[in-house]
Amino acid sequence: MHLSLALGATALALSVLPAQRRITSPKLAFGKKVGADKFLANYTQLTSYWKTLEAESDRMTLEEIGKTSYGQPMLMAIVSSPANLKKRQRYRKIAERLCHARGIDRLMADQLADEGRAVIWIDAGMHATESVAAQNIIELTYRMCSRNDAETRRILDNVILLVCPANPDGMEMVANAYMATGRVGGLPVLYQRYVGHDNNRDFYASNQKETRAINRMLYRRWFPQIIYNHHQSAPRGTVIFTPPFRDPFNYNVDPRVVRGIEIVSAHMTHRFARENKPGVISRTGAPYSTWWNGGLRTTTYFHNMIGILTESFGHPTPRKLTQALNRRLPYGDYPMPVATQTWHARQTIEYLQTANLAILDYASRYRKELLFDIWQMGKAAIAKGRKDHWTVTPRLVAEAKKRKDNTAFTDPELRDARAYVLPADQLDLTAVRRFIDRLVACGVEVHRASADFGAGFARFPKGSWVVLCDQAFRAHVRDMFEPQWHPDDLGNGGEPVRPYDSAGWTLAMQMGVQFDRVYDRIQAKLERVEDVGVDAGSVTDGSAGWLFTHYDGGSYRAMNHLLSLGDRVHWLRSRTRIGGRAWPAGTCFVENRAGGARRVRDLAKRFGVSFTGILKRPPSKLLEIRRPRIGLFDVFGGNMPTGWTQFVLQEFGFTPKLVFGKRVAEGDLRKDFDVLLFCTGLPNLSQRPRSRRPVRISDATIEKLQKALPAFEDWSNISDRRVVLTKSNALAPLEKFVSGGGTLIAIGGQASAAIRMFDFPVRTGTFVDGDGGKPRATNRSEFFIPGSLVRLAPAKGLMLTWGVQRNLVGMFRRSPVFEATEDSSQGSAQVAVRYTKKDTLASGWAIGTNHLHGKAAVLSMSFGAGNVFLFGPDMLYRGQPDATFKLVFNAILGGPARAE
Ligand SMILES: [Zn+2]
Questions:
Q1: Is 769 part of a structural domain of the chain?
Q2: What is the pLDDT of residue 344?
């Protein structure tokens, strides 16, 4: 009955539609249905199938939105009715104008919403090993191009659908590896060139090429009202997680976003129920919240967009779906439990089409409302930024509780800023430019002053950057400048509930950019910044050479460049007066040699660094730096912090080489390296030996991988990557390396591992007095910092802190806390950076910061003829904190340097 009705509708539809050419099915194209057992299409297949669809159907057109990190073209499909596709530039413009909301009154918004089309973004495959989810967009585009039922036609008429494979490189590698070995995991590298799974942690920072391309589509080009981001890790025993999400949500986000998520999700879960598809779980079923910014889905909230995430179950090889006993009884967030069964990927594909269609159906029915709502949110954001407004944060509520009245909510001292100004005369302009570039990449309107101006009591020079808060993306602006004050989220036993991701991340603080808050209207000549260029630095003549600052991130690029050309670069070892001006310790000095003037002029232009010529060599003592041979330790399968480190080092002109277990175990490391950097790999001696077993992957599998994987990397060394470091194969070679003059750097958990392995005189951890006065480690209720920014106090006069600003924060997440002790034979540790003794939490959430007060965050140790540098906080956190990069850069350049 049901079937014949459906057929009837299709027949009717066909009779009124103009004849469309036959549309090739995926089955015909690949010889397999999408989601067939033991089959994954790779990105090359997806691309060629999409090109077929584009040629055969007048409902789809392809656009290259950028290149991937391995250089593949990144495609996006635009799907709509033929008539809409012809007018797509007009509809794009309508979406943009309504989203920006500037200069659009209610009547015009109503008219534009009436004329426009809902723009919906659907992506998949970002986490490439979540392999079935990635396949689903092939099925989606096929259905949209081939079907002629009433719903499909209504969707095509009312919606412009953007479909994007979010990680083409990963899709190619995972599909090829699976088809060759039958394993979805087990790649020798990360599935995104540098950052693997962290590709979904990059969206306000826009470090990776894929992120940049997607952000451009979302926030500068198409302005979709709903974004649907597919993933594939369903909570145990369920088929799919759908929103709504658990608390907390972020107080900067418009409430219409929160309600919008609910209504779209309700439409989705309701459709699952109507189609009799069980196993759909929401809200409390998973840790996903709307607090954090930075994921593809979550950054949308700060742009007034409805971001939807699902996490489905599936595997190309049929797997058992086992219903756990604690999920047998239906409850509000899981009303329809699924029975235990063998699960095929094709079933996942069908579920994901239900979810896709639910969103598209909703958008086609509420097209006008979606367009009007995004205007309303933009308008509200502009209005808040134009007058006095108080964003209610946990801090503001706490202040009101302290005052025992409501005056905090109208206290002019506590109101929101109307603008943020980044003065053009600050120490690290490279960081400022990189920060502005990231705002612009996320669609934020940024201006530059074309003349000096004043605001309040402050004066700002020409060229200062101004970010006004009366803009549609005000929530994102505030989130990038202001601390995140995460509400206390405590479980029934009073213990903290871990947030989904970081609790605090304020990008302006991480990057160390200086800014002023302005609370009144700014009167200045402003020009819109579309692309952040480089203002060339100045160069003066000098026969002996040139001095340049250590404070600007661009200086590291200049230093690395000069060293690569064979120039001699030094750091001043103490504060020195030269040419009537005092230069701080750490100031860089490059000697003049043939063509020197031309080279520094070129660098001044490229990196925005100024060079001051001098007539005589500096009178103070110098530290000559050499081009370091950097070994960055990596493991089989890759490691995200290692990948981020590689990425950041390359961004600043360093040339790290990946080193694997086999090479370390071979010894004689000084032959090839000056610096060895560990973000992973050192044996954790506190763990049971079981977890330190070699990687179990057979030679036969390796051979298959070498043949099947695309030529993105040199795969000849896959075997070398398998050797796991242990105390017995690593300690002697590493000790010899350091004592023979090498520099060893260990970050985060690797610092603790190094301390144990080398038996350094350092205690790690946080402690309270336990039974009988014996210290015991703190528990979660006593000390808990889930990814937050803490204030750091760099020591004065140490090489490691040259060029580092005093006002410094660091990302604390699973970071070891150090205390130097004196009961060891291995020399003594010098504290280079401490946690501050008060106001230690800068942004995020922290319990028991007193356990950090005054403790060591960074240690430096001399060891034989070499050096060891240990970093507690995540100094290179996801490629964001330019301010703390310098500590690591100094260790890399300064560690191997020799005093003259
Ligand atoms: Zn995922």
A1: yes
A2: 98
Assess whether 51 and 80 both reside in one domain. Answer: yes
Ligand 1 centre to CA of 134 (Å) is: 11
Distance 130 CA to ligand 1 centre (A): 6
Q: Is residue 524 within 8 Å of 451, Cβ to Cβ?
A: yes
- What single string gives the DSSP state of each residue in 41-61? --HHHHHHHHHHHHHH-TTEE
The pair of structure tokens assigned to 890 is 């100094």
Tens digit of pLDDT for each residue in 656-685?
999 999 999 999 999 999 999 999 999 987
Q: How far is the CA of 262 from the centre of ligand 1 (A)?
A: 21
Helix (H, G, I), strand (E, B) or coil at 242: strand
Number of domains in the chain: 4
Q: Mind listing the pLDDT tens digit for each residue in 429-457?
A: 999 999 999 999 999 999 999 999 999 88
- Residues sharing a CB contact under 8 Å with residue 358, sequence separation 6 or more, in sequence order: 264, 267, 268, 270, 271, 272
685 and 618 share one domain: no
pLDDT score of 100 more than 60: yes
d(CA 779, CA 781): 6
- CATH classification of the domain holding 672: 3.40.50.880
129 Cα: distance to centroid of ligand 1 (angstroms): 8
Task: Note the pLDDT of residue 595.
Answer: 93
* 784 and 871 in a common domain: yes
Same domain, 568 and 505: no
Name the residue range of residue 56's domain: 2-380
Going from the Cα of 880 to the center of ligand 1, the distance in angstroms, rounded, reads: 21
- pLDDT tens digits, 528-547: 999 999 999 999 999 999 99
CA of 173 to the centre of ligand 1 (A): 16
Question: Which of 35, 34, 232 shows the shortest CA–CA distance to 129?
Answer: 232
pLDDT value of position 478: 98
Task: Give the residues across from 242 on adjacent strands.
Answer: 282
Residue 534 belongs to a domain: no
Would you say residue 47 lies in a domain? yes
Mean pLDDT of 840-851: 98
Using the predicted structure, report yes or no on whether residue 12 has a pLDDT greater than 80: no
Residue 720 — very low, low, confident or very high, per pLDDT cuts 50/70/90?
confident
CA distance 69 to 168: 9
